[in-house]
């Protein structure tokens, strides 16, 4: 006697509410994916904070060029952002327009300023990492692989036009970065996003992969990536603090470090530390490069194994 492929007749296999069960399961998976995405975002910012030496930037070791900031302040700022990255990932999954992402970012910035007593610790990261979290959320919500190439494609296809319009408003902005970008004719955070984060995908990520492929650690890879970003980016934070002369000095120092071979050189640490001290003495701080480092590490971690 031929055995049936199913032990029970079809009428008993149709479970009432099965569509709702599947929907609930899908929602749970998406929620977990967005939580994981947010965790990677927070972890990436924390990794940037604890990295040392890094020229002019706040770390657990010292405050760099910042008299009004320390690591404790950055930790409070990070804590205030933990829910934002979950929300913006969910928003991306829901295919929302850029205006919704922007409003979530504004709310996150307000919470950050409350947590830090009005000090801007992570405004750039709220913008850049928020967009990348939204792109990752979109991938999770639409069954797409969360790869480097897909993240960039989603970012541009979903919000590229709006980001382009957003970047054109920068000249009338009031932030230091917007004013400096307009004054010196350089790209700020808005222009960087409108171009699909070339600093992340064309500079930071390749350097991370190169150092890791050479057998060195994630710590070494992040230091090398930071210097690579400093060597190639027009950092509005540097221009704000040091003008064009400071920008030239910062770029040359970073290029010198890279020319020596970065962390492959036996005395790389001393070279990086000397650069840090030089930046502190001149009050320079490559905050834009730090934001792009965190974004690069986020994309690398998020898409690990997908490329």
Explained architecture:
- This protein is mainly alpha-helical and 307 residues long.
- It has one domain (25-302).
- It is built from 14 helices and no strands.
- The protein has helices at residues 10-13, 18-50, 71-80, 82-93, 98-116, 123-141, 148-168, 176-184, 189-194, 198-213, 218-232, 236-259, 268-282, 287-302.
- Helix 2 (18-50) crosses helix 4, helix 2 (18-50) crosses helix 14 (287-302) and helix 8 crosses helix 12 (236-259).
- Mean pLDDT is 90; it is low at 1-15.
Task: Tell me, rounded to a whole number, the average pLDDT.
Answer: 90
Percent of residues in β-strands: under 5%
Give the topology string: H per helix, E per strand: HHHHHHHHHHHHHH
**Radius of gyration computed on alpha carbons:** 22 Å
Question: Which helices and strands occur, and which strands form pairs?
Answer:
Elements: H1 10-13, H2 18-50, H3 71-80, H4 82-93, H5 98-116, H6 123-141, H7 148-168, H8 176-184, H9 189-194, H10 198-213, H11 218-232, H12 236-259, H13 268-282, H14 287-302
Task: Describe this structure in a few short sentences.
With 307 residues, this protein is mostly helical.
């Amino acid at each position: 006697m031929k055995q049936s492929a199913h032990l029970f007749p079809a009428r008993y296999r149709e479970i009432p509410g099965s569509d709702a069960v599947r929907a609930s399961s899908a929602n749970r998976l998406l929620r977990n994916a967005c939580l994981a995405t947010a965790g990677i975002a927070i972890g990436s910012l924390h990794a940037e904070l604890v990295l040392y030496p890094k020229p002019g930037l706040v770390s657990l070791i010292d405050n760099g060029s910042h008299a009004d900031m320390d690591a404790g302040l950055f930790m409070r700022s990070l804590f205030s952002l933990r829910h934002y990255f979950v929300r913006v990932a969910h928003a991306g999954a829901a295919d929302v327009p850029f205006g919704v992402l922007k409003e979530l970012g504004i709310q996150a910035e307000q919470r950050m300023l409350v947590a830090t007593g009005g000090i801007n610790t992570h405004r750039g990261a709220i913008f850049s990492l928020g967009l990348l979290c939204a792109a990752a959320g979109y991938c999770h919500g639409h069954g797409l692989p969360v790869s480097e190439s897909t993240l960039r494609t989603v970012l541009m296809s979903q919000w590229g036009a709006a980001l382009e319009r957003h970047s054109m408003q920068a000249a009338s902005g009031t932030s230091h970065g917007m004013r400096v970008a307009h004054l010196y004719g350089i790209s700020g955070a808005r222009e960087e996003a409108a171009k699909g984060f070339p600093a992340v995908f064309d500079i930071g990520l390749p350097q991370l992969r190169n150092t890791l492929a050479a057998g060195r650690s994630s710590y070494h890879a992040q230091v090398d990536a930071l210097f690579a970003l400093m060597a190639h980016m027009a950092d509005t934070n540097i221009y704000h603090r040091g003008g064009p002369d400071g920008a030239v000095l910062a770029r040359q120092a970073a290029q010198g470090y890279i020319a020596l071979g970065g962390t492959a050189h036996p005395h790389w640490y001393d070279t990086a530390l000397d650069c840090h001290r030089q930046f502190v003495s001149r009050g320079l701080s490559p905050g834009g490069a730090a934001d792009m480092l965190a974004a690069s590490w986020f994309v690398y971690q998020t898409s690990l194994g997908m490329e």
